[in-house]
Amino acid sequence: MKKFKIIFLISILLILLIYVSNITSLPDNLILFKGEEINLKTAWGLSISNNNLENKINQKYEVMQTSTLLQTDKDYIGKTSVRLNLFGKIPVKTIDVNVIENTKVVPLGDLVGLKLYTNGVLVVGMSEISGVNNTKYRPYEKTGIKEGDTIVQVNENTVTCTADLLKYIKDANGKEVSIGYVRNGNFEETSITPVKAKDNSYKIGLWVRDTAAGVGTVSFYEPSSGIFAALGHGILDIDTQELLDIGTGDFVTTSIVSIKKGEKGTPGKIQGSIENGQMIGQIYKNTEMGVYGSLKNLSALNINSQNTIEVALRDDINTGKASIICTLENNRKEEYEIEIQKIDKNNTWDNKSMQVKVTDQRLIDKTGGIIQGMSGSPIIQNGKLIGVLTHVLVSNPAMGYGVFADMMVKQMRQVH
After folding, report:
1. Residue 17 in contact with residue 390, Cβ under 8 Å?
2. Is 160 exposed, middle or buried (0-12, 13-18, 19+ CB in 10 A)?
3. Does residue 362 sit in helix, strand or coil?
4. Is 220 helix (H, G, I), strand (E, B) or coil?
5. What pLDDT score was predicted for residue 52?
6. Which of 71, 84, 126, 187 has the most C-beta neighbours closer than 10 Å?
7. Is 123 a member of any domain?
8. For residue 257, which phi and psi values (nearest 5 degrees)?
9. CA of 62: how far to CAs of 43, 65, 66, in Å?
10. CA dist 261 to 225, 359, 397, Å?
11. Kindly report the CA angle at 349 between 347 and 350, in degrees rounded to 5?
12. How far apart (Å, rounded) are the C-alpha atoms in residues 123 and 130?
């Protein structure tokens, strides 16, 4: 009997864990296009209700889970909320929903340069310091600071760049300083005592960086807002492999120096120069779904705001033929044929919504398929923007992934 009670209790706890995990995994807010529908994976017994949205339950059970079909009314625009209920009566969560108009954009595909300036200084490494007495010191030990943290304050003075950090450490003249830093979006504080090194300068043993630069493909421009989107994925720090938390950034023209062809097991890449790049606009956000900013100099990319196309809803996307636009030789944009092989229309969490294959022999001859620098190339199908290239399969450079265009537009709305 006692064993049965233990098994019963464990079963109840497991069921509770399933429900709690499912509820917390659902987003607190959603952005939907007018008329769009989206499947939310909900545990059995959970349903959504709201007067402004049409909601249906798709009765396909998968290990105590159903797909809750959340569909916007074809005429509704604006902010509302939906309530997640248990067994139709017990409210357990509210999801804020912003229903927006479908938009039109200008697909681009231009190779551009990106200069990013971090919000504070990023810790990218640590090293011992040889003191004036030849003793080895590690002043960062037991401070809690790790690689990937961003230092934003010293003694409550704002740190915007490496020069700021060096100045405040020097001004402390060997006295303990308070350090404010950010980790995973949370502000933390600690203290550290600088060490006098052999060159008589004061150091704390942290390697930091305040800038990053590279090249990539700009995906599209939205004339109604003046916003551009690029890459389809975030820019990671080369040392920490964490998403770079930027304060500001510049968007500049670039010129192609060389193209390294992709091979099985070795990704290719486009090498570009941004030294003499012409300013195009400013970057204001680096996210997992791409880089976003305001475009000021349309003439630099020969953008005609009249050449807009619709951003496709997911139901408009099909497997089969499509094309991408990218810049390779002589900084000239060209359109190349690809094939959409797989589509995950319920994907709302990452930038691998579609699996694609390069079928255009011209592109295979030039690059071997998808290479670094092509991320952000717009994907066109039936005259609509359906997505953006994001990744290449290292095992087969002709294969890769794309993110839905609607996800980038929604991200654009969140960060603007």
Report:
1. no
2. middle
3. helix
4. strand
5. 59
6. 84
7. no
8. -95, -45
9. 9, 5, 6
10. 37, 16, 9
11. 90
12. 20
Structure tokens at 98: 């912003």
Residues 200 and 228 reside in one and the same domain = no
Q: Are 219 and 226 in contact (CB under 8 A)?
A: no
Residues of the chain with pLDDT under 50: 56-65
Q: Beta strand 90-100 with 29-33: parallel, antiparallel or unpaired?
A: parallel
Residue in the block written with tokens 């700009």: 218
Q: Round to whole Å and give the CA distance between 326 and 360.
A: 13
Q: Distance between CA atoms of 206 and 125, rounded to whole angstroms?
A: 6
Whether residue 215 is found in the same domain as residue 337: yes
The CATH number covering residue 352 comes to 2.40.10.120
Query: Which tokens in the block code for residue 294?
Result: 């305001």
Q: Are residues 280 and 402 in the same domain?
A: yes
CB 325, CB 108: distance < 8 Å: yes
Q: What is the pTM of this model?
A: 0.80
Write down how long the chain is: 416
**405 three-state secondary structure:** helix
Are 273 and 254 within 8 A, CB to CB?
yes
Please name which of 381, 268, 334, 399 lies closest in space to residue 390, comparing C-alpha atoms.
399
Strands 90-100 and 104-126: unpaired
Q: Are 143 and 191 in contact (CB under 8 A)?
A: yes
